[in-house]
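seq as requested:
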Amino acid sequence: MRHRRIGSTDLAASEVGLAVWSLVAGEGARSDEDAAALLAAALDLGVAYFEATDSDDHGRAEELLGQAIRGHRDEVTVATTFGYDTTPRPWDPTPQAPRHDWSAVFAGRALDRSLQRLRLEPIDLWLLHHPGMDAIEFDELFELLESQVQKGKIRHYGVLLGPGKGWGDEGAAALGERRVAAVETVYNVAEQMPGRDLAALAAETGAGLVVRDPLAPRLDAAARARLEFLERDRGRTLDQALLRFALADPAVATALPEVRDRDQLAELAGAADLDPLTPEDLDRIAELHAGGAL
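struct tokens:
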């Protein structure tokens, strides 16, 4: 599988990565055994960028990832997130959504917990999870991040954005003012903004873009039919073509498609070895998007 550098950092990522958090959360949640099997299959296929989170079921994604890459540490780039306080509050009679805590004290504790669950040090890419502008503007937090780089607990830091109101603004500020190493955002044929603008800014600042939802999950059947030209007589599936679209911008370091099973994982991993979309393909997609057909 082809690899790309994440911006101007010393980190490399496979063009197709794996979001470990997608294996253990939501409707697609799997057992530990099934998730471990998919992680092992990803390693066999050459996937070399894995992203966990600390805000799921007690850090389960981090624990599974740490177990899976034992013996493969030098072959992969490991990312995870912080920022959400998921501490149970039994005294609160009404359930509440996890809340952010951007204090340096909380971040330091969160980092130590992630390192323990992953059983590795350093974390290659540590991501602020859905930061608002308050987090981006918080000097104490970024002083903490720099200190952890100096201590060798993390190699680089970045932001995992929205979706939500203003997420393009947060991404732009993180890139332009904080000079983060990477920004993760939704980007696909149907949802091209703010990803396209952030990719341009990332290229200017030497950062890398990590693409979430590259398979455009909100595309309806009619829109998918309009894109069949991307696979017709091309020796590739539509999902592979959608991945190639997400990877067309050189600022993109890796794309993180959600994976159903081993067969789909092999299909998507194979997209990294296919030819890029042609300029004519990209022009036609642009026309469809501009006309509201996607």
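The mean pLDDT is 94.
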